[in-house]
Records
---
Amino acid sequence: MRALASLFHEDGIWILWTGEVWKGRSKIEEGHAEVHKTVFRNSIQRERLEELTFVGPDAAVVRLFSTLTGDERSPDKVVRSRKILIVTKRQSAWRVGWRQNARLARYHARLTRKAMLT
């Protein structure tokens, strides 16, 4: 989890899909380490870049599509989400300043309805 947290500025912000906010690189590392000892211990998350927009010479907005498998509460379920990252360059280093995660409930519901019809 240290490698993941190192992608953030010291004062980075992680907003979870639940709305909880983790402030600071150490909290981001601790939060991930804790949850990966439990329900996400065998999970795999894959990210696909959907958009990268530079909004200035030292700032960019990144949008990712994500899939998560292996949540022990629902081992057969694929959780889909989108993530928005604000990435900035400080002292010659690019790092994440803000990251927010939103689960795609509508996408999941559409797939569930489709499966019920087949």
Note: The CA atoms of residues 1 and 32 lie 6 Å apart.
---
Amino acid sequence: MERSTDVNDEIGPLMQLIFTGTESTFKTALSMAVATALDWPLSSEFAREYIAKLLLEQPHLDMHHFTKEDFLACAKGQIERQEQMGYYSDDHGVFDTDGVTLSIWGADKFDGAENQWLTPPKNGLYLLCAPTNAASEDPQRIDIDRREYLHGQYIQWLEKLGRDYVLLTSESFEGRLKEAMHHLAERRIR
């Protein structure tokens, strides 16, 4: 997507944009496109890289049996990456997931929420991607049939934590990107 200088020149104090939501809802592609459009740095999701490496080393790994140790390694890597990318600073940044996802994942798979990852950024907006699109299969995705339930968990957590969020509901990537840019323009994000 071409950089939108009109949007970028009119945006206010918001510093961090966090894409969040269930699997297979365009989060990674959206975070990349928005970061490019705004010319902001992008912090990618650490877990995708970690799991891709695991699957290369262990091609028959059953993701339903992902260990808590591996989850904790993903969490540690994600938090370190966020800190390196200015998550807690006054710098602009786009984040493909954060501690909310880690907390929901931990609560869902390991019988307990890990609240240590919930420190919010100073000036963040969550872009919650709804599971209204068709899901695509991926060896890392194991909860495609549970997307509606998990989406409800995201809404509950974001509201309980008092996080500022907008809901992206378009069924297509292009429509969802347009929604995201519209919300950003409304909030004068640059």
Note: The mean pLDDT is 85.
